[in-house]
Amino acid sequence: FADFAKREGIQVVASVPLVLPTGEWLGTLMVGSRQYEALAEEDVRMLWDISRQVALAIWHAQLLRAAEERLRRLITLREIDRAIIQKQSLLEILRTVLEGAPAEMGADAVAVSLFDETRTRLQVFCMRFPNGRVIEEPAFEMAESLLQWFVGRQEPVIIYEVGQDPRLQMHWEAIRNWRLFSYLGVPMIVQGETVGILHLFTTTPRVFSDEDVAFFQTLAGQAAIAIQNVALIDKLRLAYEDLKRAQEALVQQERLLALGQMASGIAHDVNNALVPILGYAELLGRHGDEQVQVQAQRIAEAAADITRVVERLRAFYSPRAPEETLEMVDLNKAVLQVVALTRPRWYDMPQREGVTIECETDLAEDLPPTAGVGAEVREALINLVFNAVDAILAKGEARGRIVVRTRWQGEWAVVEVTDTGVGMDEETRRRAVEPFFTTKGERGSGLGLAMVYGTMRRHDGELELESQLGQGTTARLIFPIRSVKPRIEVVEDAPLTSARILLIDDDPRVRQILRSMLQEMGHQVTEAEGGAQGLALFEEALRRDEAYDLVLTDLGMPSVTGAEVVWRVKAISPSTPVIVLTGWGQESKPPKADAALGKPVTWRELKAILARFLS
C-alpha cells in the first residue's frame, strides 16, 4: 500500500476496522487523500459509521452465499440419495456416488474403497478419473498407518500434496499420470463400524474447509447405509433361497414318506406271496434234472428281482437296517464295470439311430473304497448312464458325450455323471427325483432317479443335480468315506445239528414251503397257525420237558402278533432263540428278538441264520 500511496501522491490515510456487532473482525476500510486537511474529525466519525454498514453488508453477503452453498449441497445430497435408493446392486450405488460428488466438491477424481468382513483388507475399489473414465478393481492398496487412521480413529484424512506423502507412494505413478495434487478421505461408518473409505482428489492445490469435510462425511454416510442395505438384502435373498430349498426338500421328503408307507404295506403282501414261489423254485433246483434246475433258477431270479423292486420302493423312507450287511465298495471299479456293462446302451443302440456317443472316465487314483452295497451303487450308476443316453438322444444331435468322474473331497467320495444332452429347466430339475415323475412319456417309469435318491439316502449320502436347458446335466453321487469289518461268509453246505423248530405263521402257503425247506435241512418242524396257538404249543412242550430248540415266527399276524410271541417266549425261556419273519424289512425286528429274516426267504439265508443259533 505504501508504494501505491506514494505513486498516487496520497498525503493522508484514514483506516477503520470492519467489525461485526458480535466483535468478529472482517477486514479494514481505508480512505486516502492528496491533501493534508482533507479528512476532518467528522469525516473519521462518518467513516466509522460507513465501516459498520459495510461490515454488515459483507456479513449478510457471506451468509447468503453460505446458505446458497449449503442449499445447493443439500439438493445434491438429496438427488444422490434418491438415485442410490433406486439402485439394486453394489456397483450401481458406487457409480452413483462417484458421478454425484465431483460437481459440488470441485473434485477431479473420486474413489470408493470397501473393506472385507474382517475390516482389515480393502477388497473392492471403484474410481472415477478426471476424464470421466470409471475403473473397478478387486482390491486397493493403502499404507497401514492410513488404514489404522480410518478404521481405528474413524476421522477424515487431508493431504495437501499427495505427490510428497510417503503413505501414498505405492500410487505415485498414477498420481503423476493424472496430475493429482490434494486429497480428502473420509471413513464410511455404519453402526460404529468402518465399512469403507470415500476418496476425493483435486488436480490443483486445495485447502478443504470444514464445510467441505462435513459435506463429504454426509455423502459417505449415505453411501455406507445404502451399501449396508444392499448387503442385508443380499443376505435376506440368500436366506430366503435356503428356506425355499429346505421347504422343497421337506415337501419332497413327505412325498417319499407317503410313497414309502404305501409301498411298505404292499411289500408285506407281495413278499408273503413270493415266499412259496422262491422256496419251491429252490427246492426244485436241488432235486430236478439239469433242465428243471435251469428253469427253477430262472423262477428264483425273477422272484428275487421282484423282491428287490419292492424293497427299493419301501426303502424310500426307511434308513438302512443296522443288521444289513455292507461291503467295501471300490467306486472306481464300479464305474469301470458300469461303463462296460452299459456299452450296448450308450454305443451300439445310438449307432443304429445315426448318433455317436462317447463315454469317458476320469478316475481319481487315490480314491479310497467306502462302505456300501455294491449292487445298489452299480444300479444307481447304470440309471444315471441310461438317463444321460436318453438326454443326448432327445437333443437330436449327431454326437454326444458322457463323462463319469470320481474324486476325493475331504471325508466324501464323489462320482459325477456329466452329459451333453438336452438338459432340464429348473422346475424339471426340482421334480426329477419325485417317484413316477418323467419327461419321457410312456417310455419312462419315473422311478429311475427316485431309486438313485433312495440308494444315496440309505448310504447316508447325497444326490445333487446340476442342469441347464440345452447344455446338459451333471448328476453327482456323494458318499461318506467309511469302513466296515470284513464279512464272515457262512459255508452253505456246513452240517447243522438236527433241531426241533416251532414254526408260527398265519399264511398256510408260507408255512408249507418253510416246513419243506426246514425238513430238507434235517429239522423236525411243528406248525402253528397263529401266535396264540404257537404260544400254547411252546408252553406245552416246556411242561413235557421237550422244549423247542428254536422258534421261527411271522411278525405281522392278527390277534397275537409276532412281537408278542417274542416277548412271551423270552419271558418263559430267555435262552430259546427267536427269529422273526417279516415282509416289512429287517429293520422292523422287535427289541427282544434274536434275529430278523426278510421275506421271501432263500435257502441260503435260512440256513445261514439257523447256523448262527444251532451250530
What would your notes on this structure say?
This protein is an alpha/beta fold. It has 5 domains: 2-71, GAF domain (Beta-Lactamase, 2-Layer Sandwich), CATH 3.30.450; 86-235, GAF domain (Beta-Lactamase, 2-Layer Sandwich); 246-310; 327-480, 2-Layer Sandwich (Heat Shock Protein 90), CATH 3.30.565; 500-614, Rossmann fold (3-Layer(aba) Sandwich). 48% of the residues lie in helices and 21% in strands. The protein has 16 helices and 20 strands. It has a 6-stranded antiparallel sheet, sandwiched between helices. Helix 2 runs antiparallel to helix 3 (90-105) and helix 3 packs antiparallel against helix 6. It starts with a helix and ends with a helix.
Give the arrangement of secondary structure elements.
Blueprint: H1 2-8, E1 12-19, E2 25-33, H2 41-85, H3 90-105, E3 109-115, E4 122-128, E5 134-137, H4 144-153, E6 157-159, H5 172-178, E7 182-190, E8 193-202, H6 210-287, H7 290-314, E9 327-329, H8 331-341, H9 343-352, E10 356-362, E11 370-372, H10 374-395, E12 399-409, E13 412-419, H11 426-431, H12 448-458, E14 462-468, E15 472-480, E16 500-504, H13 508-520, E17 524-528, H14 531-543, E18 550-554, H15 562-572, E19 578-582, E20 595-598, H16 603-614
Parallel strand pairs: 10-12, 16-17, 16-18, 18-19, 19-20
Antiparallel strand pairs: 1-2, 3-4, 3-8, 4-5, 6-7, 7-8, 9-11, 12-13, 13-15, 14-15
